[in-house]
Design brief:
Elements (H helix, E strand, L loop, with lengths): L4 E3 L31 E10 L6 E9 L5 E9 L4 E9 L4 E5 H5 L43 H10 L20 E11 L14 H4 L7 E9 L2 E7 L1 E3 L35 E7 L3 E7 L23 E6 L4 E2 L24 E6 L10 E7 L20 E11 L2 E9 L1 E2 L11 E3 L3
Parallel strand pairs: 1-20
Antiparallel strand pairs: 2-7, 2-10, 3-6, 3-8, 4-5, 4-7, 8-9, 11-16, 11-19, 12-15, 12-17, 13-14, 13-16, 17-18
Length: about 425
């Protein structure tokens, strides 16, 4: 990563910046841009299961090429446990909408490659669009409606309850009636349905491809009204850049491939900047646990939870900096112990100015340093152990007489590009 060092005093802080966070950066690796990619990240979804007309999350997957592609959708809990997966076939220049409420009710998107759809009734294609047959799709596409028991198991897994999909274990924090987590979408070379996750051994060796052709967007909705939209996060694959081909380097799926870079996916950034209006702005934050998390006994939580962070600097509109609470952690093989951990899970949505993230000012901006110290077995061998990728989006709530009518905002400003050959960006607090 590009080096940026802050010295922040407790009162009347002076800030020394070494190396500008903005400016030219390597556009191929580490930069978050809206461009076709081999993997897309929906950083956070939510579905209100107690109200069929309540909050849901919708996303669209698009194919930027004339070549037909297969996309593999994986649903993860808020603590980064994979729960369920399905395939989406896209003809050339195709697009497919996915409503997470429908998925949690067992109704999966209906697509089919040429072999299952010879008359173009399910996945029609245009004059400039390829339509081909992919291997192993018979009986997989179009997907069947989930059984009532499987749909229940999926909802239980995504609300932090014991689930048969997780062997009777749990995969997230308890949130009865409210499902949340994140989604990844990868290009693949064959149908695999719900048998494979990115965490499955051999997935990147024989199934996932490096076709940078996917793009899309998502929206948070309340009933039929879309409140906020944003591009899906593009995770570009690169088979020539040493940063994504050298074993020991940090890649997007590194925790699932033993940090050998065989996924070839560029990692996301670690530091961000975003505006806030206290009590009116929500921060959506996705974070890399750096651990291949599996389901766990429901009476416990993973050892890494809560996932701490190195720190924040909160500014008002006159540039006065305040550190909400010290958030540096000792370099020791223990989970962080600091009580101020507003983004403790792999993904979450937090109201800025609430008890979860108190703010000293009414308006301003926040520097998010989301690097974290973890030491799992097989952690990244060649870089600073504190380095950890993340993604941040901020949304300001717009309210009317009838309640929330919309949101404005989008991805926070990326302040660094991930470079495993450099020391990570770090807030250095006085001792």
């Amino acid at each position: 990563m590009r080096k940026n060092v802050f010295w922040v005093g407790v009162l009347g802080a002076m800030i020394l910046l070494v190396g500008a966070p903005a400016g030219a950066a390597d556009p191929a690796v580490g930069a978050i841009r809206s461009e076709p990619a081999a993997t897309l990240l929906l950083p956070y979804f939510e579905v209100d299961l107690s109200n069929s007309a309540g909050r849901t999350t919708r996303f669209w997957v698009n194919n930027a090429s004339a070549t037909a592609v297969m996309a593999h959708v994986t649903i993860w809990t808020d603590l980064s446990v994979p729960v369920y997966a399905f395939d989406i076939y896209l003809t050339g220049y195709d697009m497919q909408k996915v409503d997470m409420r429908n998925v949690l009710n067992g109704n999966l998107p209906q697509t089919a490659s040429a072999g299952q759809d010879p008359i173009d009734a399910i996945s029609p294609h245009g004059a400039k669009s390829q339509d081909v047959n992919f291997p192993n799709c018979g009986g997989v596409l179009p997907p069947a409606v989930l059984s009532a028991s499987d749909a229940t198991a999926l909802r239980r897994a995504l609300t932090g309850q014991s689930s048969t999909m997780l062997g009777g274990h749990c995969g997230g924090r308890s949130s009865p009636g409210f499902a949340h987590g994140y989604v990844t979408i990868d290009t693949i070379n064959q149908c695999v349905g719900d048998t494979q996750f990115p965490s499955t051994a051999g997935y990147f060796a024989s199934i996932a491809t490096v076709q940078n052709v996917l793009w899309g967007d998502f929206s948070y909705a309340n009933g039929t009204a879309d409140l906020q939209g944003s591009p899906l996060v593009a995770v570009v694959a690169n088979q020539t850049d040493p940063l994504t081909t050298t074993s020991g380097n940090y890649t997007f799926y590194g925790r699932y491939v033993g940090w050998d870079a065989s996924d070839h996916r560029s990692p996301l950034a670690t530091n961000y900047a975003g505006r806030y209006n206290s009590g009116q702005t929500q921060a959506v934050v996705w974070r890399d646990t750096k651990i291949a998390q599996e389901a766990f006994p429901c009476a416990s939580l993973p050892d890494w939870y809560p996932l701490g962070q190195e720190g924040f600097v909160v500014y008002d509109e006159q540039e006065h900096p305040v550190i909400p609470k010290p958030t540096q952690y000792p370099v020791a093989p223990q989970p962080p112990l600091d009580p101020f951990v507003p983004f403790a899970a792999a993904t979450q949505k937090v109201l800025l100015g609430s008890t979860a993230f108190p703010l000293p000012f009414t308006r301003g901006w926040i520097w998010y340093d989301l690097n974290v110290y973890v030491t799992p077995a097989g952690d990244v061998p060649s870089i600073d152990k504190n380095a950890a990728q993340s993604w941040v989006m901020t949304m300001r709530i717009i309210r009317g007489s009838a309640g929330t009518i919309g949101m404005v905002g989008g991805p926070a400003l990326q302040l660094d590009n991930f470079d495993p050959t450099a020391s990570h960006v770090q807030l250095l607090l006085p001792h």
